[in-house]
Specification:
113 residues; alpha+beta; globular
Length: 113
């Protein structure tokens, strides 16, 4: 569909929605919202690196989940990735993602100083 995984505009890096797709394109984590979130976060981290940023520079994330009752699993993996100084974040339930097996998608914005 033609989009960039990450775009750098000056000091800002915008990362498009990342799901639990592994390097081979296959879904990672099966039915585990926690494992899918860990992979989505790894994908965010890889996109940031390509644009010259790190997770420590992320100031905003948006998490889209297909089952809000699993927010604790998603939040735990997000917290493990973004550490002691977490970004401003939102978690929003959506009716579906592009693949019905996908449970979470994460967008990020980083400020590179």
């Amino acid at each position: 569909m033609g989009y960039s995984r990450a775009v750098r505009a000056g000091a800002l890096v915008f990362v498009s929605g990342c799901t639990a797709a592994g390097p081979d394109g296959e879904l990672v984590g099966g039915p585990s919202a926690y494992e899918q979130t860990r992979q989505a976060c790894r994908n965010v981290e890889a996109a940031l690196a390509q644009a010259g940023a790190t997770v420590a520079e992320v100031v905003r994330t948006r998490m889209y989940v297909t089952d809000i009752s699993r927010w604790e699993e998603v939040g735990r993996a997000h917290s493990e990735t973004f550490g002691a100084a977490p970004p401003a974040s939102s978690i929003v339930e959506v009716s579906a993602l592009i693949d019905p097996r996908m449970l979470v998608e994460i967008e990020a914005v980083a400020h590179v100083s």
